[in-house]
Amino acid sequence: MASHAHFSADQELQLEHRQHHPGNAEYVKIAIILAIITLAEVVIWYMESVKDLLVPALIIMSVAKFLIVVGYFMHLKFDNHFFSYVFFFGLGIAMMIFISLGFIFACHEAVTFFGDLT
Amino acid sequence: MAQAIAEQTQAAGIGHEGTGHGHADHPPTSLGINHRKLLMWMFLASDCMFFGSLIATYMIYRGRTETVGNGPFPSNILDIPYTSVSAFVLLMSSLTMVLSLGALQRGDLRGSRVWLLATALLGTIFVGGQFFEFTDFYHQGLSLQQNMFGATFFTLTGFHGAHVTIGIIWLLTLLFVSLRGGLKQEDSLDLEIAGLYWHFVDIVWVVIFTLVYLLPYKQMPKEGAEHALNLLGTGAHIIATIFF
Q1: Can you tell me the mean pLDDT for B66-81?
Q2: pLDDT, tens only, A74-108
């Protein structure tokens, strides 16, 4: 029994967070929200009137779905914040890879073009 | 109080190094969090980089898929309604996954098994749909070697499909273990870790669905500088939308 005494305040906090995990009804509500966002994505894809806003709208909805799944279904919102730091660190590097590769290839295209001019 | 926390924490698999069976005699970890769960989050972070690279490659060549090589091209081959259904199926499998975990944490073994089987079935439907899509594309003339679109598309979605397939095998293994009585309430961390992996393949598909299928394809100019400006413009637009 003595071993039970060395639970830290942080572990008590984790348990408290776990006790606040959504229940089945809340999970179903979250899934319905995700389904509605997916439906909205497809609907606006067909709408000519929002063509100018299509790209930002799709990206905002995609980011929203991503954060909802990560926050609620993967419990990052309720779990120890250290898991969030680890995951978003990796995600941040992935974003940097994405931006860097795009920048490198764009520069390469430009250099190739201007090189041809000279 | 401490004993109550210990008992509940054991069941939840928090704060104990080792098997996830919550042995109370084990000392707490140095970080105060379960190492197996941390390891899975680290793996998912590294998988973010893996898919980040594949998606970046796809996006770089996305602009010129209509101009390099012979068709078929994305604008005349991608089937949005069909893929929307696939995306919906995978999204719903995330719901059944959390319901399975919730049931196990409450000690409802039968419910956990039913939802676990449902998750595996939904995953199988998704992979089956992807197999059908690949076959259809191949019959329409698209292959890995056909053009830039074929190479980047099959690589990206193929690796995602492989991840889903591994997830299905993992879920079915857990179901088999559960049916043999090896997955009880106190082992819920085993299912939670599998669930983290499963939700991850779902969020990767959320990104792929938007970037590969939904973002409109337009005819890019062949000239290098114009293409570069278009590429930078699209990148800046996406970054500005995300951060501002």
Answers
A1: 78
A2: 999 888 899 999 999 999 999 999 899 888 887 77
In the numeric block, which tokens belong to residue B108?
A: 């409802």
Q: Can you give chain A as a three-state secondary structure string?
A: CHHHHHCCHHHHHHHHHHHCCCCHHHHHHHHHHHHHHHHHHHHHHHCHHHHHHHHHHHHHHHHHHHHHHHHHHCCCCCCCHHHHHHHHHHHHHHHHHHHHHHHHHHHHHHHHHHHHHC
Instruction: Report the CATH fold assignment for B34-235.
Output: Four Helix Bundle (Hemerythrin (Met), subunit A) (1.20.120)
**Angle of CA points B171, B174, B177, to nearest 5°:** 155
Q: Which of A1, A28, A42 to mutate against chain B (most B CBs within 10 Å)?
A: A42
- Domain limits, chain A: 6-79, 81-118
Q: Which of residues 37-96 of A touch B (CB under 8 A)?
A: 38, 41-42, 45, 54-56, 58-63, 65-66, 69-70, 73-74, 80, 82-83, 86-87, 89-91, 93-95
A14 reaches B (C-beta below 8 A): yes
* Contact by Cβ (8 Å): A89, B44: no
This model of the complex carries an ipTM of: 0.80
